[in-house]
Amino acid sequence: MRTSPFLLAPGLARRSLDEFKRFAKIALNQEGLTVPTAPYPLLDLRDLSIIEACKTMSDADIGGFSQVSLEHRPGTDVAPPHARFYGSISTELPTNRPHVQRTGYAAWRNRDRRGTVFGKSLWDVDPYTYLGLQVKSDGRKYFVNVQTETIVPTDLHQHRLYARRPGEWETVLIKWSDFVRTNHGVVVEPQMEILKQKVRTIGIGLIDRIPGPFDLAIGSIWATNNPDNGQIVEGGGEVESKAD
């Protein structure tokens, strides 16, 4: 009897090959022994397919009235291709859901990436000091949200996205060690350093609860050790220690 050949689904095979190439590059460059000098791309939102692999969330999911969209915008003479995260915040409460006592938020993140023959697709950013973001902000109070493979699936590590030049494209660098552990928007104790070896999702949320429109453009997100190509955000994440 002849055994049947082991075949991988095309998508799984491609993802597994990409992961193998990444492991091989790390080995060849001895990146585990030295500090990487090249940036590590995480989410290239200039690519329409990457945006399509993301999801949006808002209080509309529980009956609220905030509106949110994440759409691709092609490049122009004055702007690179990017994702536009926009909509309108409403703090109005749904009258038919008395258990809902708080609204006024919107967010997006990448969906869990599909696995490979090596297991779950997780980002290992342990060799890197900073998270880099190319953004154009409207000046509102956005937070960067990072989810890792932890025993508490609802935990997020958050940090304020400080824009120094609202209305202009800029690069913001955030130290991975400055992210604050939260759960449902509240700082939790004990604080634990972010699990950099197992990053599941990255996204951005708006939780200032100020009614009205918002508009944030994001070009790309990456990990880096180079502090020279952006504005470094110093200090903590400025996350509220308790709910309002």
How would you sum up the global shape?
globular
In which range does the helix fraction lie?
10-25%
Structural class: mainly beta
Strand percentage = 35-45%
Return Rg in Å.
19 Å
> How many DSSP-defined strands?
14
The termini sit apart by: 69 Å
Report the sheet with the most strands, covering strand number, pairing sense and barrel closure. 7 strands, mixed
Helical segment tally? 2
Spans where pLDDT lies below 50 across 5 or more residues: none
- H-E string: HEHEEEEEEEEEEEEE
Mean pLDDT: 86
What would you note in describing this structure?
- Helices cover 10% and strands 36% of the residues.
- The mean pLDDT is 86.
- The strands form 2 sheets. Strands 1, 3, 4, 6, 9, 13 and 14 form a 7-stranded mixed sheet that branches. Strands 2-5-12-7-8-10-11 form a 7-stranded antiparallel sheet.
- The chain has 244 residues and is mostly beta strands.
- The chain has helices at 10-29, 48-52, and strands at 40-44, 54-58, 67-73, 82-89, 106-110, 130-136, 142-148, 155-160, 169-175, 180-183, 186-187, 199-206, 212-224, 231-233.
- It is built from 2 helices and 14 strands, in the order αβαβββββββββββββ.
Question: What attributes characterize this protein structure?
Answer:
single chain; seven-stranded mixed sheet; 244 residues; 36% strand; mainly beta; 2 helices; seven-stranded antiparallel sheet
